[in-house]
Amino acid sequence: MSTPELGLPMVVPAQGLPARVRIHEVGARDGLQNEKATVPTEVKAEFIRRLAGAGLTTIEATSFVHPRWVPQLADSEQLFPLVSDLGGDGGAPGVRLPVLVPNERGLDRALALGARHVAVFASATESFAKANLNRTVDESLAMFEPVVSRARADRAHVRGYVSMCFGDPWEGAVPVHQVVRVCKALLDMGCDELSLGDTIGVATPGHVQNLLAELNEEGVPTDVLGVHFHDTYGQALANTLASLQHGVTTVDASAGGLGGCPYAKSATGNLATEDLVWMLQGLGVDTGVDLGRLTATSVWMAGQLGRPSPSRTVKALSHQE
Amino acid sequence: MSTPELGLPMVVPAQGLPARVRIHEVGARDGLQNEKATVPTEVKAEFIRRLAGAGLTTIEATSFVHPRWVPQLADSEQLFPLVSDLGGDGGAPGVRLPVLVPNERGLDRALALGARHVAVFASATESFAKANLNRTVDESLAMFEPVVSRARADRAHVRGYVSMCFGDPWEGAVPVHQVVRVCKALLDMGCDELSLGDTIGVATPGHVQNLLAELNEEGVPTDVLGVHFHDTYGQALANTLASLQHGVTTVDASAGGLGGCPYAKSATGNLATEDLVWMLQGLGVDTGVDLGRLTATSVWMAGQLGRPSPSRTVKALSHQE
Fold it and tell me: What is the tens place of the pLDDT at every residue in B5-51?
């Protein structure tokens, strides 16, 4: 039996879901940062432009981390000016182009180039804070505090990533109260939104809904919460559905499933934006994304990287072998 | 960051889900039937034994189709006696070993070998009925009628597969009333349960819940309904979650994601049993399956077939490159 391109799912809404979801596209930053071979700056800029052309309105562009930490993103000062015309200022129309800023030095560089959306990257666990930032959780929060307050003073929008919200490779299951504590600290210092990360992909839908409910009970409203699932165990889209049912309207995803290699030992594959859009489009949830253009972008990027996209929707729509 | 084997998800139940799900394992039949290289009968028998050893209680064993149609399953008369000791009779303890019977001749062969669970394979669309059975939908139902009634007279349990319940590669979106009509016809002729197949993987959660609700409205109770999702667009587990939320307690899956090649043009990958078990275990839904033993079985079978399992959970737990 052959399977011709159907292109789009049938639209049948489900009860209790949001009318619209904002996709926070992380492919250009989170996706590319693990690529070993250096991707030329012009290719990154073209990737971001194509993502915007496909209708994505929040495209994380790069990271102003020290080049030694993430060599792939060492060109952020060259890249950002190539795409910053896409970004609207504050409430104005246009595309949001958030950039990661690990510390005040990174913030200075981002603001100097006109970034209006920045993000800090915290951890819910001590082990990952130590591994990723060489600090305790509290030391890293103290490091972020002036970053957030200065960004806010400059009227930039601040996202706080919270990684290892469900499981941690060293510590196992992560107690909800640890996640709540870090989330509240980030909001207290002025973050506008949070992204709850299942960095190792172990979460299941009940765990997700439980964390969201606990955060609500502790005074954190759902509308500041985004979710960031990894597909390591194939759970990302089911967890996303559970989040939507709880009222979440911001979902992180990576075009073509870029990020980590799903075939390698420490598989950390991000949820593929195309698989997410297929589901949302079928559910009648508006994203503004053109699935055909997005898939074409991921196929083009896969060509640049020299290997196929792990996204099932990209495979199915592109007949990518 | 390395990702040591965590092995199992944290258990956090979600509201409104069944306490127990029966997994209908299709790897040995639906999974293997598309394999080009002939799998030795002894390997198939060992696969089924290992699946039973991992705790699966419903293992579709083979098909009594004419050998010309599905050469891979031409050994069903040799295979079934090698594993039939696993199968309990009717309500007795043991493993269910359903076999596909396309017609009365196939039923005769299956019953002669002591099969107690049989299945017929219908289509919701004319195009697939024509392509798969060279008959109209009504002609194929007429062919199944004596198969089902004679199986029932012999006190065998009968499952009715309904393929193309959501989309069809020739006809596009499939109207719900077509699916309802075929389901009711199969139940009227005596089928004990149905399996609703998303054969090309295009369904999304609202579409799934809508079909289930329409079937209920037409007098078909949820407890005779199983679901059979394909992961062609990455939707299988989200659709399964939506089905569980509707009360479905029978879910088809294929060990290691066997069935169709997820990397080939007409990707038809079945939902991987391991990805399903990870979610159900995390949700605290009892399946009786030992995820470690199941994963080991799929890794072993991948070795027999000479290529890695497409299941993300198998990849993650086995560090399969």
Answer: 458 999 999 999 999 999 999 999 999 998 888 999 999 999 999 99
CATH, domain range A19-63+71-93+254-321:
3.20.20.70
Active site residues of B: 261
According to DSSP H, which parts of chain A are helical?
A: 41-53, 76-83, 104-112, 126-133, 137-153, 176-188, 205-217, 236-246, 273-282, 291-305, 312-318
Q: How do residues A185-241 score in pLDDT, each as one tens digit?
A: 999 999 999 999 999 999 999 999 999 999 999 999 999 999 999 999 999 999 999
Closest-CA distance of chain A to residue B81, Å: 31
3-state secondary structure of B68: coil
Chain A: residue whose CA lies nearest to B130: A1
Tell me which residue in A14, A200, A275 faces B234 most closely, judged by beta carbons: A275
- Angle, to 10 degrees, between the axis of helix A137-153 and the axis of helix A176-188? 30
Q: Do residue A242 and residue B14 have CB atoms under 8 angstroms apart?
A: yes
Are A294 and A51 spatial neighbours (Cβ–Cβ below 8 Å)?
A: yes
Residue of A nearest to B319 (CA): A265
Residue B2 clears pLDDT 70, i.e. is over it: no
d(CA B15, CA A217): 17
Residue type at B167 in one-letter notation: G
Parts of chain A belonging to CATH 3.20.20.70 = 19-63+71-93+254-321, 116-246
Q: Do A234 and B275 touch (CB under 8 A)?
A: yes
Residues of A whose CB is below 8 A from B269: 312
CATH numeric code, A116-246 = 3.20.20.70
* Token duo for residue B4: 């040591």
Q: Which residues of A touch B240 (CB under 8 A)?
A: 238
